[in-house]
Structures are given as structure tokens and as C-alpha cells.
């Protein structure tokens, strides 16, 4: 049986994983999820990427947004707004239960990884979903308007600020969560999901030892481009590539992953870039449809990525 570990963050990763658990036994899949987006909001600990991955794989995610729960309401948030409380971050009434549960257990000294494991088990998930670390790790974005906490940049200000640099508070002292190193060491394939390289993948790799571990296993690592035809499928990846001085293309992303991945998965729209990517990065490029528009497309991308990585190894 083939096993896979996926470096994951946000909607693109969640959709890829949704396809992956259909082509592999779910118990052979480990999602190692970004927590740089985590925040404290109205006294609650919010883990957006963990929740997006969990809700998606449980079949509960809002299909219109790709995050949050389907059938959600916002009476609590509306009432909070009327009382003058913080209302800029969308917390639905059903979603609120997750944050209350997580925050309560964290307040009792339990680690985020154990709480996540219990949450996913209660939802009937057989794959492993784990935060990259149980320690506090926060993405900070340097912009024209100064340093912004990630959710201030991304949600409150709608990613409108030009990004000059990023740093990951707490990374220096963070340790990988239990099972993270083992999953990366023991799996047959490591996938860098089609997530934002800067906001979703770099926080994972900032945990000491993880970048080196992935690079050491480069021959069995496949990276899926989140850029198609010079544009991001979702989010500000293209804008950040430009503002940080990178080529706004799949080639620009490939350069970021050249030392980490042996295989680069490229959308058909970018097939003309394949030769340049292979020549410049020494990655083997595999061209296939990467836009995950439905279940069949998700599964086809997951299956093709696995096959490419296994053949490379």
C-alpha cells in the first residue's frame, strides 16, 4: 500500500486531500497542516487551515466558499456586532462550537495535535490530520502599512497591502508535533499541495528541521503548482510573487521548490514552461489538468501526482 504525507494549507490543499483519500486508503494519508494562520479572536483559539482541511474531508465544508461549514448561520456574530464586539472575522454559529471545544481543551493544557486528532475522530475521519507544531507559530506580514498579523492582512484588510517580507514568530523554538517527522520519514510520497508557497508552505518549513527533512527526501517529493496561466487559483499568491520579486508564473513557483521537490506538477495551460522548468530546476515536470473543479478532477490530480512521484523515486 502506498502512503503519502501532504504539506497542506488552506482550500487548495483541502481539495487535493479530498481527492487523495479517494485514491489511497485514508489511513495511509497524513496531512501536515499550517498553523501560521492561527489567531486568538474574542478569546477563542482559531485554526483556520486545520478546520478547512477537516471540514472538507468530513464533507461538511461550505462548497461556495471552500471554508466554513455548510448550512451555517451568523446570529451570534450579528449579535456580537450589535454589542460592539469584533465582527470582522466570519465565525458561524456551527463553527463556533469547534472553536469553543478547542479553546477549552487548550486552556486545560492539552496539545493542539491531540485535540485535532480527537476532533477528526469524532467526525469519522480515518486519515491523520495534524498541525505542523503544537507550539505557538504565527505568520507576520511586513507591508507598506507596517507589520500585520496574518488575519489582519488577509481577512480584515482583504490582502490589499503590498507584501515586502514575511516572518514566522515562534519558529525558532517550535518543535514538530508528534507524528510529523515520522510521517515524512516513513511515507512513500511527500506532496507539497497547491497552496500559497509563502503563506501556507513556508510556515510549515520554518519549523526547525522540516525543510532539511523534505529536501533530504527530494526524490520522492512532488510539488503541485498553485499558479495556472500566471494567476493564482485562489488568494494572493500571484500578488506576493510579484511584490517579492519573483516571476509571476509556475516557473516562479518551481524555482522556490527546486531544492525540495524532484517532481513538479504543471497545469496544461502552462505546458510551454515545462522545458524551462526542467532545465533550470532539475525537477521532472509532469503536465496534467490541475484545476480541481469536481470530485473526478480532484481524484485525477491526486492519482497523477502520486504516480509521478513514485516513478521519480
What low-confidence regions span 5 or more consecutive residues with pLDDT below 50?
Answer: none
Structural class: alpha/beta
Roughly what percent helix? 40-55%
Strand order of the largest sheet: 5-2-1-9-10-13-14
Tag the structure with descriptive keywords.
313 residues, 41% helix, seven-stranded parallel beta sheet, globular, three-stranded antiparallel beta sheet, 14 strands, alpha/beta
Please sum up the structure shown:
This protein has 313 residues and is an alpha/beta fold. It has helices at residues 10-23, 48-57, 75-82, 93-107, 112-122, 150-156, 180-186, 197-205, 210-216, 237-243, 250-257, 274-281, 295-312, and strands spanning 4-8, 29-33, 39-41, 44-46, 128-131, 138-143, 146-149, 163-169, 189-192, 221-224, 227-228, 231-232, 263-266, 284-287.
Question: How would you portray this structure in words?
Answer:
The protein is α/β, with parallel strands linked by helices. Helices cover 41% and strands 18% of the residues. The chain contains 13 helices and 14 strands. The chain has helices spanning 10-23, 48-57, 75-82, 93-107, 112-122, 150-156, 180-186, 197-205, 210-216, 237-243, 250-257, 274-281, 295-312; strands at residues 4-8, 29-33, 39-41, 44-46, 128-131, 138-143, 146-149, 163-169, 189-192, 221-224, 227-228, 231-232, 263-266, 284-287. The strands form four sheets. The chain has a seven-stranded parallel sheet with strand order 5-2-1-9-10-13-14, sandwiched between helices. Strands 7-6-8 form a three-stranded antiparallel sheet. A two-stranded antiparallel ribbon has the order 3-4. Helix 1 runs parallel beside helix 2 (48-57) and helix 11 (250-257) runs parallel beside helix 12. The relative contact order is 0.15.
